[in-house]
Specification:
Blueprint lengths: L1 H24 L16 E5 L4 H4 L1 H7 L5 E5 L8 H4 L3 E3 L12 H17 L4 E6 L6 H7 L4 E6 L9 H9 L10 H11 L4 E5 L9 E3 L5 E5 L10 E3 L7 H24 L3 E4 L10 E2 L2
Helix pairs in contact: 5-6, 7-9, 8-9
Length: 287
Amino acid sequence: MLSKYLFVRDCIDSVLNILMALVLNVLYIPTFFCFFLKGKGNVHILGNGPSLKADWERLMLRIQPCDSILCVNMFAGSQLYKTVKPNLYVIVDPGFFSITLSKELQKKVDGAIEALINETEWELTLFIPFFQRNKECVKRIKANKHIRICFLKNVPTIGGFSFINAVLYKLNLSNPLFQNVTGASLYVAIKAKFEQVFLWGVDHSWLEYETVQSDNKVYIKSRHYYDDGKEEKIVVPSEGFLLHEHLLEYVRCFQCYHNLKKYALLNKTKVFNCASISWIDAFERLN
């Protein structure tokens, strides 16, 4: 009975995915979308989790001269940016395009943007959400002739059969749910048809650093590799932020990785999780 239910559910989800893809793509017309990246060999995706610092020596030993390096979000604001010199970069964090950030966070965002503009002296392909294309920071980044900007069109699939979703991805009609920047980066790497993808700094151990305090609010400790041993700061979510809603975001995030695993297999791309600390259970571990 359960198998029949799951089959019917997947059928319904696939039909909805196709209908939503056709309807939502109307919003992007007349803009023509194609994928501007052809991957060769291997790519290393560098997340910003604390384990990246501990795994740095392993990372340097594994990177080969012909490998691509993909960095995300705030990485450009770190001292390692000019050392690594990534050729790929993905930004999907809404904070980069917001005007309502705290002073501290705005300072970090501004630092990363300024580094992209002023320190990038090598060829870099930057992926950002299509609907953020007219933001002021994007116009400023475009002034750097070394940076080529590609747009990510976010029309996510929810559930359904993986082979039907793969067809939608190939036709640029849909994409996996970009619950966070690692998922978006994996999609870019798989769609570019890199042979092997190595994940670093993808700890995803957020639950270890969360608590519900006496005011019934969820408090999160901010931890990244570039914190340099500074005291962990507690981030207070917005008013009305409920624990079960927060946990559902995590469910969607980890579920997305299993969907991306299926998509990688269909594209004959091997994905390895190299992080010494990681809660991602979808990909083969390589420690």
